[in-house]
Fold this protein.
Amino acid sequence: MKDQTDTNPARRRGGKLQVKTVTMAHGGGGKAMRDLIDDVFISAFDNPEIGDMEDQARLTSDLLLEPGAQLAFTTDSFVVSPIEFPGGDIGKISVCGTVNDLAVGGAKPLWLSAAVIIEEGTEVELLRKIALSMRAAADEAGVHIVTGDTKVVERGSADKIFITTSGVGVIPPGRNLNAGRVQVGDVAIVNGVLGDHGAAILTARGDMALSTEIQSDCASLNGLMEAVIAAAPDVRCARDATRGGLASALNEIAEAAGVGIEVDETDLPLRTEVKGVCEILGLDPLYLANEGTLVLFVPQDQAEAALAAMRGLEVGKNAVAIGRATPENPGTVVMKTVFGGGRIIDMLVGEQLPRIC
């Protein structure tokens, strides 16, 4: 891809698919593969930074020119089942998940790559739908998908579509969000209700004949993080509560900072429907995955400002303080129960739900 300063990039003529399902020929490196890439992915992701389709993206940003700026880089694979679920699909989650991994570190996400593994026989229209979902999620987050790859595998070697996204962003000078910075007295805040994504995936599979209206919370959180940092500039750290849920995120922070973390059960934001699903199936909602929910720690005197900033955005309207860092029980998370006792919240052992992202 040519540098953005090139005012006359050579654009190749896009090919068109003539079939309804993907065949092994679409992974063979010839015209069929080129038509698949052009018709499904380039048509959806087209932006100035894709340029003339070289084997690499060539990128520049004024953010990188600031003295002390840091490059942030992350990668993740997505194998969620089912591919489409209430509130999202594998395309949306692949973009939002990678954007959020950058955002919780204080980075401003800029560019994504997308590598797609496609099972032979997958419907082309499903691919189009997923690609357009990725584009919509990228536009909403203000990032560009600038490079990628496709591979086709034999029928039965994958479950229609697997996606690996990598993301690049820039951490502005002076920002240092790190779990080790959490101090005794800092307040723990979440931006929304817990467990919606895990519960939505579980019910969408249809194995348990459960009927609920639970939607995944899948969303990009970079705008929310920028608002919080502006309102509460001494934010210590943030974690998106994905696999392993809130419990695992809190345990990681407690261990890294060498503090205890105490949360109050009565403050945890949970939908009645999610509680019901968990009670029926014997699951703990604190370990259910989220894809649009984060937990962050701020100094006590900046907690109200952080909450106000979060509540001013749709993805933060349900923000609430759930606990604080304490000197007792370093490295341990304890929940004050509704009965007045204390319960240790350990890291997740095993997997409550496989293939939730």
In short: The two ends are 30 Å apart (CA to CA). Residues 1-9 have pLDDT under 50 and may be disordered. The first strand starts at residue 70 and ends at 78.
